[in-house]
Amino acid sequence: MKQRxxxxxxxxxxVWFLTFAGVLAGCSGLxxxxxxxxxxxxxxxxxxxxxxxxxxxxxxxxxADMHVTSVDRRxxxxxxxxxxxxxxxxxxxxxxxxxxxxxxxxxxxxxxxxGTASSSTYATLLTPRSGYQYDVDVAYADEMxxxxxxxxxxxxxxxxxxxxxxxxACKPN
Amino acid sequence: MGLTRLSFLFSVAVLLFGCVxxxxxxxxxxxxxxxxxxFSSREVFEVKKPYRQVSDTLRKKWLECLDSTATGSLxxxxxxxxxQTNVYKPNVAVTAQRTELTLQHKVTSGSTxxxxxxxxxxxxxxADVYPANTNTSxxxxxxxxxxxxxxxKAIRHWAEGTNMGCPDLAQ
Lengths: 173, 171
Hints:
The structure holds two protein chains of two kinds. In chain A, 13% of the residues lie in helices and 43% in strands. Chain A has one helix at 2-24; strands at 41-47, 60-71, 77-85, 90-92, 100-110, 116-126, 133-141, 144-152, 159-162. The radius of gyration of chain A is 20 Å and the shape is globular. The model of chain A is unreliable at 17-27 (pLDDT under 50). Helices cover 31% and strands 39% of the residues of chain B. Chain B contains four helices and seven strands, in the order ααβαβββββαβ. Chain B has helices at 3-18, 26-34, 51-66, 149-160, and strands at 40-47, 69-76, 79-94, 99-109, 122-133, 136-144, 166-167. Chain B has a six-stranded antiparallel sheet with strand order 1-6-5-4-3-2, with helices on both faces. Chain B starts with a helix and ends with a strand. The relative contact order of chain B is 0.20. Classes of the chains: A mainly beta, B alpha+beta. Strand 8 of chain A pairs antiparallel with strand 7 of chain B.
């Protein structure tokens, strides 16, 4: 009995350690968005941490993620995964001619202040046209962010800004 | 800061806040500001731009940026103390003489809002835009809540056209 209790305690400690190590390693635990579709969404991010506490020297983190959710004809959402945004541009494929709900999340955490965390989101409904490319510029600085989506015709190179659509713009058919 | 001290400060803030009822309408918020209620403030400024232009910009940015969700959590050591989810609902009403922008806030998890909030939450910020003259607009921003300096700053940026980004409501 005593041995069993010790074993349980060791397992609990191990789980805590692995969780902590995972968090320290920057593992967000979010399922990665994967798709075999041709890449039509190009995301570029420029991020500057809002608080010094959320920077590496003070054992803090600041992350930006894009959560991808597919939306069916009845406007039912189905979460498909997340993409971590950083200094490198990201290219992913989302279904053409059907809406996807893209949620951009900025989150900061500081271990110096015992792990207080905060996050905020910006969401838009996007229905990519077949054969078109979509460029997303994400910027965060001075506690303000901007997310701009452009539709680009790869043949002519012409680009136009796509206005943000709230989820309420989805109409079941 | 110790958790006990934090809880005490939070309790005091809640008590002070509770002395004046939290606004359930935009007019109730204006009344609270007029009476200098605790945590209420007002900022009025003018922009050298026609009313229609300022109204259009603020309407667009208000709906685009403030229809948002923010979360905040407090931990102690390895234990999670609380996670609060804040949902914001922006609304706009435009007439030829005034543009009214309102922001409502509700807490959907982590704590309970007392005082029977409306379905979309209590009114925390109301901004009114008026034509001062043909080429000048007056912006009157009133709030009855703690924080949200980022939103106040963003309204001025949008009206003046100096920064069209969205404020991070979690900061």
